[in-house]
Design brief:
heterodimer, A: 259 residues, alpha/beta, 2 domains, six-stranded mixed beta sheet, B: 320 residues, mainly alpha, MetI-like fold, 0% strand
Chain lengths: 259, 320
Amino acid sequence: MVNSIRFEHVKKTFTTIDGEKVTALSGVDLEIEQGKFICLIGPSGCGKSTMLRLLAGLDTPSEGAVYLNDKQVTKPGSDRGLVFQDPNLFPWLTIYDNIAFGLKARGMYKQRKNDVSSFMELVGLKGFERSFPHQLSGGMCQRASLARALIGNPQALLLDEPLGALDAFTRMNMQDELLRIKKEQSMTMIMVTHDVDEAVYLADQIVVMTPRPAKIEKVLDVRLSQPRDRNNPEFIRLRSEILKILDFAGKESTPEYNI
Amino acid sequence: MKFVRPLLPLISLAAAEIIALAIPDSPLHQKAAHPYFAVLLLIVTVVYYIGAFLSDRISRRQKTPREHPIFYRAPFLAGAILFGNLLNLFTVKTALFPVLYFPSLDRVFGTLVEDRVLIGKCIGFSLGILAKGVFGGLLIGFFTGLAIGFSKAAEYWINPIVRILGPIPSTAWIPILLIVFSEARNASAFIIGISVWFPITVLTSSGIANVKNSYFEVSSTLGASTFYKIFRIGVPAAMPHIFLGLFNGICGSFVALMTAEMIGAKYGIGWYVNFQKEMMAYANVYAGLIVIAVMFYLIITLLFKVRNRVLGWQKGVIKW
């Protein structure tokens, strides 16, 4: 299938300093359609961030392969934008220069100079061009980080708990913002989250993962139209279904204190 | 107090001028050609008042808030004048201090005027060697640190050498350098270079080792090449460390310069002090020390100005 992301029998093991092998991901198969909003959800240690890093090309799978448009992912590239929980803005650059970074790095700044202001406007940061990251709030920094990833026109935007560090109001605000941006830019968005509510509010498809072994438990389609009402019966039903899967999985898994 | 504060330098100045001009000098002291000390005090005070009024005027016109109120430094200046006044009293007026080692302030400041050609030449000579050594050491240290910071192979092979050679005090190289270099000034520049090279290398490489890995990860997802990541992420992120190294290196280079000039140099401000000491011309020794203090103060001030400009983004992030 063209224009898609594919995980084929992907396994990832790390070796700790003590020489111990840790399985971060044990045999994952997943196909993601172009233009969808996907949420990866699950408790810590279920390998959801690992999946994102593999797709970004920051790590390579121990077994299997990840494909973007039928091309195997081997290294990071600007066709996949990445946003972390920590905005990771470069503190020595102004907000403008942070957002323009990708264009400058690829020598495209001259032709696409105007895009910087339009992306600043897209994320609602107009007027903060000359501010430095430390002068902005956490939410604003995350917007800047979003713009920095978006300006390269990536086919997929990878979000690793991007709203995790924000307060509840800023968070809901940013969720709507993400949906608006997605509509305008029409790209695939893959988001890792801990928050079931957030997943049901945003996603077209929710990938529920469980730890030990770290794998995909279930893939759920969300057939609610946007904008979504958090009190809709279907919304509530989905939320409790996910919670049930996670709870059930939690009981089956080995307890943390078991040596 | 509010009204006295601006007048303090004037009061202190009046006392100093009366003692300097009205009380006769001790016959034990060699006579100076002019009353340099009295003139200097007057100039300093006038310059201070003009400066205070002008900066007040400017900040009022630009409506920028002042860091300190006008006449903030007035008590300090008054104290400084008082200190000079007491020195003057104990040296030339009463000969309370040993005459040979504590010459009159008139002769110390007189030396700066009368010996200005030689002193100027010495300053030029010293600055030349210092510039050569500091820029050489900075350049080589920066690239050594960069290599250690980014390349595993360089870290394996070069880092032990840096750790063994670096802590050797640069002046300990003198016996070898005198054989290697035919010209003393090149040997001096080399000593200065070594004393700058070591702290720059260490702090550049540790600065790069401390850069958040996620900065590099983010920049690779934004399509940055390795070269771009080194110079646009690694170097600016390590810049606070590099400046710390530069500050340490420059302070070390002053020591190295003074020592280097005391071996086989024909000019230089360190040579000047040493030479005049051997001539028992202590007025010239003090004049030389004043020149050294002013020179190094200006260099450090310049370094801090450059740092504030380059690391302006740090405000509120890191303080040192």
